[in-house]
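Journal club prep — side note

Before the paper discussion, L.F. wants everyone to see what a predicted structure for a comparable chain looks like in token form. Sequence:
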Amino acid sequence: MGNFLGIDASTQSLTGLVIDPVTGQIVAEKSVNFDEHFSHRYGVANGAIDLGDGVVHSPPLMWVEALEILFRQLDASGVKMASIDAVAGSGQQHGTVYLNMSAAGVLGGLRADMDLSEQLRDIFSRATAPIWMDTSTREQCTQIEEGVGGRQRLLDLTGNTAFERFSGPQIRKFAQTEPEAYERTASICLVSSFMASLLAGRLVPVDAGDASGTNLMDIRQRRWSPDALAATADGLNRRLLPVIDADSVVGPISPFWVERYGLAATCQVLPFSGDNPCSLIGLGLVRPGQMALSLGTSDTFFACMDQVRTSDSGEGALFASPDGEHYMALICFLNGSLARE
């Protein structure tokens, strides 16, 4: 058995961890800090662009560049790239990436003699991606709740009331404020599925763990809810790939990474999930009642549950666990590390 590469696309950095799954030993770990590499080029601070009035975005092309830097770092560190049998990872939850109709074809025909960012520069219908720090969608949250029949109905259906930082309200605001750009949007990815798509050379579906953070997924059925989609934006069902199980295999890695960085053509890409559901699994919280506290950019308390349980007051969030069986209860405070600093 070869090695496994895990990639974490967080708010402030992109990290790669190569492990030997037999011994559990870490073979290599490298990280690309966005501010260090891209603050002047993309105007980011703490990995994001504050546009005022609660609007906070990040440029997806920055993540594309960072992914190549990460692979160069891993290669330079002495990792035998051909030894990597599979790649999976996590992405900051709730961020939405908007792609035009050229994206699928470009991803499927990547050339190894050109930088990835150069080839993907024109695939976006929106140059920046709203992320979890964006709190500008209060109006859209109210509209989505009303559209499905009320706040309690949305909570029962998706496991969550409408949260300002969730993907559904972000999408609705984009469709309302930039209708022409929304019309040019052929596909909408989350950060997790976008990063997996870069590796697979094809558009990759969202897993149920990350899809839970959209206000769009039926939490019990683990599929997009037609009612929630209809309440969010016209034609949204055409712009989303079906929800996929986290342990599915997307397919072999794109020839781009084989030819340019020496990965084996047999290396498999698995769906990425959201960073919070991945934290649940990564800490081994796979039995109901197990819980953890995470102190980071945001402070988060989370626990494993055996069934759907929601609070009528809606102060917490509920996600599907990537293990396919359980659920993740979560309470998040947006201003974590910044307050401590």
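L.F.'s comment for the group: The chain has a mean pLDDT of 95. Keep this in mind when we get to the figures.
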